[in-house]
Amino acid sequence: MELSPNNSTDQSLLDAQLELWHTTFAFMKSMALKSAIHLRIADAIHLHGGAASLSQILSKVHLHPSRVSSLRRLMRVLTTTNVFGTQPLGGGSDDDSEPVYTLTPVSRLLIGSQSSQLAQTPLAAMVLDPTIVSPFSELGAWFQHELPDPCIFKHTHGRGIWELTKDDATFDALVNDGLASDSQLIVDVAIKQSAEVFQGISSLVDVGGGIGAAAQAISKAFPHVKCSVLDLAHVVAKAPTHTDVQFIAGDMFESIPPADAVLLKSVLHDWDHDDCVKILKNCKKAIPPREAGGKVIIINMVVGAGPSDMKHKEMQAIFDVYIMFINGMERDEQEWSKIFSEAGYSDYRIIPVLGVRSIIEVYP
Ligand SMILES: C[S@@+](CC[C@H](N)C(=O)[O-])C[C@H]1O[C@@H](n2cnc3c(N)ncnc32)[C@H](O)[C@@H]1O
Predict the structure, then answer these.
(1) For ligand 1, is residue 183 a contact (CB within 6 Å)?
(2) Is 266's C-beta closer than 6 angstroms to any atom of ligand 1?
(3) What PROSITE patterns has UniProt attached to this entry?
(4) Taking the model in full, what pTM does it have?
(5) Predicted ipTM?
(6) Among the CATH numbers 1.10.3720.10, 3.10.310.10, 2.130.10.150, 1.10.10.10, which is that of 8-108?
(7) How many Cβ atoms are within 10 Å of 166's Cβ, its own excluded?
């Protein structure tokens, strides 16, 4: 016999607690994902043709013998969060039937690593690294107090993020690879969804372009476009050498090499209003007038643009608070528009074809 609370106040209390628990324990979803990446469970299932029982997964992942029985519990979280699926087993009682785990569109993004065009494991590994996660414990205090440094990341680690990437090679690789994996996926979609953005230009400089994943994708799709990357010297030092893309060490706050178009992907949301204006003023000096094809191509969120379902809205809101850790922000159209006009641009066009993100073409 099923017992349930017999008064609606009790039921509402339980519902409220459940809702609260969902948010309180949401970090366990992230930690389960982090474990799955660490154990390379997606690869193990992939090696079994996309569907594998627990014992087949166990034959491919390295587990301490005492932890074997816990893997099923981890898989239960990963299936309820849609990272993996399960195949119903025909016959046998529930107790003795072994579930078969399958890849979902989500876990297909976890197969392989840098070698795979779509692999998103490096970005997840970056976001879930303690260096990035730990500053958020200070978020409440940051709202209340004048901290010695207004940047939560700097407050926690004693250095800004780009100073830390300079000093810590492991963290630098984590950031470079993480962002490169995102660039590979999103720039590929941008090229397919909005090829006209890259047509009609003969040169492009990717400012803050990291190790060049976006520039390489553009150069491959549009071989007539001469692509270069401007980034800090310690990042450029790690860039690939056998590529058509030219890497230039420099500081975007000082000067930007000339090109028909400047790409800024996941860069401006790292900076406050005034810094964005400074960067865009330098971009304007680097490009020809609008009539000659000059433009800045931004890939970032435009809060409120794109699909308006709850998942997209929630992700934009979460990302805006996430990027607070380095004093960055996600912006709505009005906020972007103010930056563009202060930096001396005449017009812009938002192309909301990248899910939670958009392409913005900005014209001098
Ligand atoms: C969030 S990452 C984006 C990387 C790349 N655009 C992507 O999305 O894959 C920001 C990049 O800006 C670079 N950066 C930071 N300060 C810079 C500066 N003053 N001049 C040039 N690049 C800078 C960082 O080294 C880093 O590669």
Answers:
(1) yes
(2) yes
(3) SAM_OMT_II
(4) 0.92
(5) 0.99
(6) 1.10.10.10
(7) 16
